[in-house]
Structure formats: structure tokens, C-alpha cells
Amino acid sequence: MAMASIHLHQNGFSLRHSSPKRYIAVREHQSLLRVTCSDTREGFKLQQSLSPLKEFKSVACGILAVWALSGVSPVLAANQRLPPLSTEPNRCERAFVGNTIGQANGVYDKPIDLRFCDYTNEKSNLKGKSLAAALMSDAKFDGADMSEVVMSKAYAVGASFKSVNFSNAVLDRVNFGKANLRGAVFRNTVLSGSTFEEAQLEDAVFEDTIIGYIDLQKLCTNTTITPDGRAELGCR
């Protein structure tokens, strides 16, 4: 049986500038809460806590469970092949509904296969949808409004997102390898854990993006990012 513990603060998280145009998450230093969980066959179970907030304990243990399970995505495992293209007649329309479960941890009742679908200039039906762990390779989203979308663990290799509005979206752990992201707007967007290997990022806007330091270093190696984009990210 393994154990894990986290230390949280009652006042939660706050955002602090790490550069003129970028934020990192920091914890406030008041009212320390300690939650200790252990993994069992039934999942993570609360063992002890110094906090009187029962509901908060359950949420914290849920976070630990997600962290433990999210190291390998059901879609992005290193040696795992992608499934065959779905034969569902209306598979492209599923993007307008999205996932009904899972969201940020990439769990789903049925995979969303959007490969080769065309959503060019879609301005209303994608906004705010949950597309966690969606298969998006070679799909076209050029000019679409994807603000507030949740795309955690999505596989978007080779997809086209030219001039897409990703404002306030959650794009953590997305594989954007070889994707066309020219002119995409990442305003107040979570990019933690996402990869952009050989992606095209000319004229992309990175205003107030939320990204980890290591992820930022990797992103800054992309030579297609314009000087303005590098300044917004805080690349050195």
C-alpha cells in the first residue's frame, strides 16, 4: 500500500506574475491543511487530516488519484498505436457535444474521434466544450472559436488551428506535434504539460498564459515563435 500526502492552504491558490505577460500558480501561506491518502483496491482513501473540512478532504484525495493515474494517457502512451478511425456516421458532430465525464483527467465513456474532420470558421458549437483525450490529428479548426474549451490529453498531431481563439481554454498535456498554430490566440490559457514539437507558431499570441517553467523552456526552443510571442512568454 502506498501513501501520499499534500499540503494545501485554506486560502487556496493565487496567480503571480513570473514575467510581464505570464503567470505561475503559487500557494498562499495561511491556514495550512494536511491531507494524507493511501491507495487501496477501491482507490485512494482518506487516512487522516488536520482539517475539519470533510468535503475538502475528498476533493484533495481525488486530486491525488488523478495525479497518480495521469502519468500515462490512454491516448498518448509512448508505444501505443492509435485506434482505427471510427466508423460512426456522425463522429465529427460529437465535438459539438463533447465528453460528459472525465474532463481534465482524460477519462471518457467513449473516445471522441475527430480525425480528418473540418471545423473551419466554426464560431459557436465548439466554445466551452470538453474534448478531453480527443483524437484530433489531421483535423481542421482554422478560424474556430475554441475559447473555454477543455482539451486535456488531446492528441492533435498534424492538426490545423490557424487563427483559433483558445482564450481561457484548458490545454494541458496536449500533443500539438507538427500542428499548424499560426496566429492562434492563447490568452489566459493553461498550457502546462503540452508539447509543440515541430509545431508552427508564427504570430501566435501568448498573453497571460499559465505554464510550468520546464514546459516554458521547451516551448521557447520553437524557432517559429515571433519576437513578440517570445516576449509575452518571457523566453530568454
Provide a descriptive summary of the structure in words.
The radius of gyration is 19 Å and the shape is globular. Helices cover 13% and strands 19% of the residues. The model is unreliable at 1-16 and 24-79 (pLDDT under 50). The protein has helices at residues 54-69, 213-219, 227-233; strands spanning 3-9, 13-19, 22-27, 32-40, 43-49, 185-187, 205-207, 209-210. It has 236 residues and is an alpha/beta fold.
Considering the chains and any ligands shown, give keywords for the structure.
236 residues, alpha/beta, three-stranded antiparallel beta sheet, 8 strands, 13% helix
What Rg, in angstroms, do the CA atoms define? 19 Å
Question: Mean of the pLDDT scores?
Answer: 76
**Beta content:** 15-25%
Query: What is the number of strand segments?
Result: 8
User: Uncertain regions: pLDDT < 50 for 5+ in a row?
Assistant: 1-16, 24-79
Note the gap between the termini: 44 Å
Major sheet summary line = 3 strands, antiparallel
Shape: globular
The total of helices stands at 3
Which structural class is indicated by helix and strand composition? alpha/beta
Order of helices and strands: EEEEEHEEEHH
Spatial ordering of strands, largest sheet: 1-4-5
Helix content: 10-25%
